[in-house]
Amino acid sequence: RLVGSEMCIRDRFYRIISYRKKKCNATLKGSAIMIQKYVFGNPIATNAVVTEIKPTQEPLPFFTTDGNGTFTYSLSEEDIVYGLGEQIRGINKRGWQYVSWNYDNPNHHEDTRSLYGSHNFILIRGTKTFGAFFDYAGKMEFDIGYTKRNLMQIKAAKNDLTVYIITGENEKDIVKQFRKIIGKSYIPPLWAFGYGQSRWGYKTEQDIRDVAKQYKDAGVPLDSIYLDIDYMERYKDFTVDETRFPDLKGLAADMREQGIHLVPIIDAGVKIEDGYPVYEEGVQKNYFCKNAEGGDFVGAVWPGRVHFPDFLQPEARDWFGKKYAVLTEMGIDGFWNDMNEPAIFYTEDRLEDTCNKIKELTSGNMGIDEYFTFTGMVAGLNGNIGDYDKFYHNIDGQMVKHSEVHNLYGMNMTRSAFEALQEIRPEQRTLFFSRSSYVGAHRYGGIWQGDNKSWWSHILQSMQQLPALNMAGFLFTGCDTGGFGCDTTEDLMLRWLQYSLFTPLFRNHSADGTRQQELYQFDNFAATGEMIKIRYSLVPYLYSEFLKAALQDSMMFRPLAFDFPEDKMAQQVEDQLLLGNELMIAPIYHQNAQGRYVYLPEEMMLVRMKSHDHYETEILPQGHHYVAAALDELVFFIRNQKAIPFAAPAESTAKTDWNSVQLLGYAGASYELYTDDGISSNPESTLKISTLS
Ligand code: GLC
Fold first, then answer.
1. Span from the CA of 226 to the centroid of ligand 1 (angstroms)
2. Which residues of 280-317 are buried (b: 16+ CB within 10 A; e: fewer)?
3. Has residue 570 got a pLDDT over 60?
4. Ligand 1: which residue has its CA nearest to atom 12?
């Protein structure tokens, strides 16, 4: 039994020893890195970690393991669990169960378990503070105090995985070390920081021209218009419907003259259609995923019956990626990759079984049990987990069941495009963002947060994902502003813009059949337009902080507690974020609210803005405050003794007058501005760091 001072001495002694061990075992260069790699079974390479680290034979610390893929950790009452990237619920992940299984799920509800990406990196802060990355490409469950309040159980479908344990000085240091081993984050071209207008429903060239004209006539800036699936001929990748878009090249050129980039969608599934070269080549070269019998696997998505390119084969990646040139040759320089979980609406055999069963169920007098079997079977067609056991990838000559590498699919689609475009147009950056991802995908592109809804709660949900996404390297991200599904309202749009104007990806996107939500559809275009102009005034700050985060492996968006670790109140704040080193945001996400309570962990300057050239500031002391904000009024906070660069708004990012940049914030404060030419493929080659004061 250890008592009193004896316990303290032993405890300290133990800590010193374990610290030394970690240092010795780390094989990375640079003595500050404290990462241990533990290999279980025979993991399939995921390509998430790009730094070579020698595995240790020592037992895994902190967790107990059953040797069967389950890892258990006892949570103390004070422990906070951060991470998991794109997931529902709070910044602190305690109290729910999450499943890493990339899933085309438009229901981002409180009881959802899986979304489009799998980012198995967590950071525990409390009794012990450390990071853990469970590098596993199949299904993985994170029960973080769901079954038992103070128990965390992490379970891989198979005991074939690599676990990395990262210790460090504090939360920011742990994240930085993790980011170092997974490689540098993707940096998009500067124009991707402008405002983008999108809608699933633009069907013709004229629709696109109308959008551009409406914004131009109102003097509201715009940098991009998105082309959803309707630009294609029968949803076939790398085709253009010639009746509805007779001259895409000409359209792209006209738009570019107005400072607008067209960004088409590319879906993962390749339509099965005789005479369609992408389909025929893929079949001929064995570039599609196979079924158990060795034939090309068939699923159904937007184009109808499709084959899925085997993005895990380097040759198939190269082949598919080079197809993007069909569009870059028409003057396109940005893409969004979709349906790449991959989404499967149904497989033919399951559809047939379902239809047969339905015939059986409806042949007699259908009772309530039969009715629920019927509806359940129909609902179970889409994204059925069993379908992911029915196809295979060719990994170095071995046929590997898709479900074992499922979470790598979307990442490798974006990798295919990124690597091919680096070859095709090496001098320039191309915009890429994807719906599906895994850790490592942050090197090839950004991600958007998927099919949210026009719900007030989805402003908060997007915001709560940002720090976790940044922890996993995803810096270029944002949500469908205004909401994708359901009908938006003018007040929701205004409040949503007041949040999204701070996110790197700033795109208004909505689903076919919902209320139209281009900003000119609402009466108060003057107010929404002002929010867009403020965004353009903030571009120098946002771009500069983005570059810093990407080049220094740091987080652009952080929970308050990461900068104020000793502040107990800051640890509980779930609806405010630090943005870069100078700002704090506290968006309003309740209908009819005319303000909100805000917690300031230090003295800060409140900024209220109705327009870029009309604002008021007020110094508020550390503590709790009620901050009033009219519907058309943006509020944000500048941190104590800091200032941000603020430019005159331009009609597009290309026209930003960097000489107009002034400092907004505390008198006497200076700011370190990072800029580059906004387009060169190696941003560091044109990086300029200047001090503004
Ligand atoms: C998916 C995408 C959405 C897109 C739609 C049609 O639901 O997530 O953004 O608009 O497909 O392509």
1. 11
2. eebeeeebbbbeeeeebbbbbbbbeebbbbbbbbeebb
3. yes
4. 229
For residue 26, the 8-state DSSP code is -
* Best mutation site among 105, 203, 484, 507 for ligand 1 pocket (most ligand atoms within 8 Å of CB): 484
pLDDT in tens, 186-227: 999 999 999 999 999 999 999 999 999 999 999 999 999 999
Q: First CA to last CA across the chain, in angstroms? A: 61
3-state secondary structure of 48: coil
Looking at ligand 1, which atom is closest to the CA of residue 228?
12
Here the tokens at position 358 are: 């339905």
Q: In this structure, what are the phi and psi dihedrals at residue 346, rounded to the nearest 5 degrees? A: -165, 160
Distance in angstroms (rounded) separating the CA atoms of residues 393 and 313: 8
Tell me the C-alpha distance between 127 and 11, whole Å.
13
Cβ atoms 301, 267 nearer than 8 A = yes
Question: Catalytic residue among 141, 241, 338, 545, which?
Answer: 338
What is the CA(483)–ligand 1 centre distance, in A?
Answer: 12
Ligand 1: lining residues by beta carbon, under 6 Å: 200, 228-229, 265, 338, 435, 450-451
135 assigned to active site? no
The CA-atom distances, in angstroms, between 364 and each of 128, 360, 367, 579 are 62, 8, 9, 62
pLDDT in tens, 126-156: 999 999 999 999 999 999 999 999 999 999 9
